[in-house]
C-alpha cells in the first residue's frame, strides 16, 4: 500500500507505507482493511493511491471513527466515499459524498452505489447518511 514511487506493477511495493489499524470490515460479500500511514498519527494521512491486495481501504479519523473509504480497480484508486468532513455547503459532515478521482467530480451516492456499498459503509460507521 503506497504511492507511485514504491508501486510495482507486477505486485506489491518496494516499500510499504501503510499498516492495518483495525479489524477487517465485511458486509454483503465486500471486505476492506482499516489502515493508517506509517509514522503518521491516525486521521492525519489520506489513503494510498495504490492498493496491495484489497479493493477497499478505510481510514480512521482523528476522532477514532472511520470517515473515508477508497475503492480501487486494478490496484489504482478509483472512487472515494467521504463523510468525515464537510465538502462545501452541499455536503455536510456525516453525509457521504463521492469523489471520482479521474474527473475530480464530487456528488452524492447513486442508488446503485447505496445498494452495493450501503451496508458496507454502515458496518464501518453506523451513523453515516446517504441523503
Descriptive notes:
This protein has 131 residues and is mainly β. The chain has one helix and eight strands. It has one helix spanning 111-124, and strands at residues 18-20, 25-27, 30-37, 56-60, 66-73, 76-82, 97-100, 105-108. Strands 1, 2, 3, 4, 5, 6, 7 and 8 form an eight-stranded mixed β-sheet that branches. The model has no long low-confidence stretch (mean pLDDT 85).
Give a short overview.
With 131 residues, this protein is mainly beta. 11% of the residues lie in helices and 32% in strands.
Overall shape: it is globular
Poorly predicted sequence stretches spanning 5 or more consecutive residues: none
Largest sheet geometry:
8 strands, mixed
Number of DSSP-assigned strands: 8
Number of helices: 1
Structural class of the secondary structure composition? mainly beta
List keywords for this structure.
131 residues; mainly beta; 8-stranded mixed beta sheet
List the helices and strands and how they pair.
Elements: E1 18-20, E2 25-27, E3 30-37, E4 56-60, E5 66-73, E6 76-82, E7 97-100, E8 105-108, H1 111-124
Parallel strand pairs: 3-4
Antiparallel strand pairs: 1-3, 2-3, 4-5, 5-6, 6-7, 7-8
